[in-house]
Amino acid sequence: MEVPVGFMAKLWSFVSFLPFFFLLLVLGLVKALIVGPIALAIIMIGNSAVIIGLWPAHFFWTYYCLARTERIGLILKIMALILFPVPLILWPIIGIAGSLLGGIAYGFFTPLMATFEAVGESVTSKCYHCFIDGSFSTVKGSCTTVRDFTDFCFHSYFSYMDELREMISADAQPVEIKLSRLPSCLLASLIGVLVDVLLITAVAIYKSPYMLLRGWKRLLEDLVGREGPFLETVCVPFAGLAIILWPLAVLGAVVSSIICSFFLGLYSGVIVHQFINTQEDSFKMGLNYIIAAVSLFDEYVNDLLYLSEGTCLPRPRYRRTMDSGSGKRTSGDRENVDLKSRRTASLGSRLISEHSRTLKKAIYQYKPVQVWDWLFKSCEVNGRILLRDGLIEVKDVEECLVKGNCKKLYIKLPAWTVLQCLLASAKSNSSGLVIYDDVELTDANSPRDKVFQWLVGPLLIMKEQIKNLKLTEDEEFRLRRLVMVCKTERPEDWGTTEFPSSDMVRKAQLQAIVRRLQGMVGTISRVPTFRRRFMNLAKVLYIEAVQAGASGNRVGWILKPTNNNQRSTQDLLV
Fold first, then answer.
1. DSSP tag of 154
2. Average pLDDT of every residue of the chain
3. CB-based contact 4:68 (threshold 8 Å)
């Protein structure tokens, strides 16, 4: 469908849109009222059972790991042991309340949104999908939510605690606080909470009408002109639903601001502690931060709502590199504001002002789920390769499924997969990451999700480091094997291997890249959906391996045999 041009065409598009929208809205509400209580019961009962059942283990293991850790000093450890009963006791209350609210939101909005998505341009049999979509899939999704929550509470949490309990290097200093400065830190935090919660709440409430009106204006423009995000599904009336629900989004933004103001106020105690060993008055710096936090929040809101740049509120200096000012952007401000997001917001503002929001479709941005799918599909293919080459044994997969001992597969297989991607990207002189033959993941098209931005940035740096090392094919081949079979703590760990280079500095650089890569994978592995998808991947590998063993064909089932074993691990990109 073409975008209507002219006032009369846009008016007719708007009028003809209304009955279509209300019919879909009524159908979606009926489905939500039927499916919502079922999804709510599954999430509420499942998550509550997990929280209550694991709470004694969480309580005991948290105290045990805090008592054994060497990462924090004695005074901070004693304080943590004294104060931790508060969050541990509040955890069941917060968790069950969050499950209730999350179950209501998921059970109500998922069928409603699925009803609108069913009439998209790419959907066939729209009438059938209007009634079916969002019904069984919502119930199934609620079961998946409970499983992911269980994985997080049972696996990810204990993984975090085990990492806290791990030994630190001899030259590392534990995190400690000075008891003599504790009263001033607590006083600053108390003042910060009282002042920042009050002032930031006032700013949020004052700016909420602007957010409401500007949001409605933007949504109405998209509804009438069929531009912006609604151009992708021209016939789908998401704009009308968004207009109705926009006040809830504004209310959620205000509530989020109030919650965040509490933590911003508490951070003033950290500012005071940071200036303990300096000649400056640390308590004064904490008070300055309390006032500056309100100014930073106001400026952020102005940028978000496309209001006047900067802020009229005072911003005293609370860092050594800052200059005092009121609303002017200084070097200190850059420490506290994400400039990349500001540039993105500024670009979006210019596009809107020039009535060219549809130009953003020229740059296709990948979604997080697409990158996530690529990782697990690549792990599945590479798992077959590693099984064929003997770097992974069938008993490793069996132990992962039966005993839950997935340490080798859990970390090394995804790390090996991402290393393949980095090596291929470095050789192709790509500006980003080559995840398929004709697909590159760059800063321009990577997901705007903060988590993925934190991950893609370091990967691009590691790719450039590998590119500067100019590895030979033999070094690349040996590096792949060493990632799976050797430790990477010290250059001496590769001393008895067949790594072609004898340069200890070169080995240390490669080991640093591998360690960082494995650390990133370890962080990713704690994401709740990771374990569920990885266990499904392990089941596929195990079934195929058992079938191949029964047929006596160990190689053919995995990949077409090649004459050169070295090239076989390079032909398939990821």
1. I
2. 77
3. no
The CA distance from 138 to 142, in Å, is: 6
The answer on pLDDT for 49 being more than 90 is: yes
Strand (E) or helix (H) holding 440:
strand 439-441
Burial annotation 294-331 (CB, 10 A radius, 16+ → b, else e): bbbbbbbbbbbebbeebbebebbbbbeebeebebeeee
174 in Cβ contact with 71 (< 8 Å) = yes
Read off the pLDDT of residues 487-502 as tens digits, 9 standing for 90 and up: 666 666 665 556 666 7
Residue 100, pLDDT > 90, answer yes
pLDDT score, position 254: 92
Q: Where are the domains of the chain?
A: 1-176, 178-358, 368-571
Assessment of whether the complete model's pTM goes beyond 0.90:
no
Q: Which amino acid is at 32?
A: A
Q: How far apart are CA 444 and CA 432, in angstroms?
A: 9
Which is it for the CA torsion 57, 58, 62, 68, positive or negative? Answer: positive
- Report the candidate in 480, 540, 524, 514 with the shortest Cα–Cα distance to residue 372: 524
**Residues 177-184: contacts with CB under 8 Å, at least 24 apart:** 177/73, 177/75, 177/76, 177/79, 177/273, 178/75, 178/273, 178/276, 179/75, 181/272, 181/273, 181/276, 181/282, 184/272, 184/282, 184/283, 184/286
Residues in the chain: 574
Residue-wise pLDDT for 522-538, tens only, equals 888 888 888 888 888 88
- Closest C-alpha to 221, from 12, 1, 14: 14
pLDDT tens-digit series, residues 66-90: 888 888 888 888 888 888 888 899 9
Residues 6+ apart with CB under 8 A from 425: 432, 433, 434, 440, 463
Query: Which residues, at least 6 apart from 424, have a Cβ–Cβ distance to it below 8 Å?
Result: 434, 573, 574
Nearest Cα to Cα of residue 212 among 251, 258, 250: 250
Average pLDDT estimate for 33-57: 94
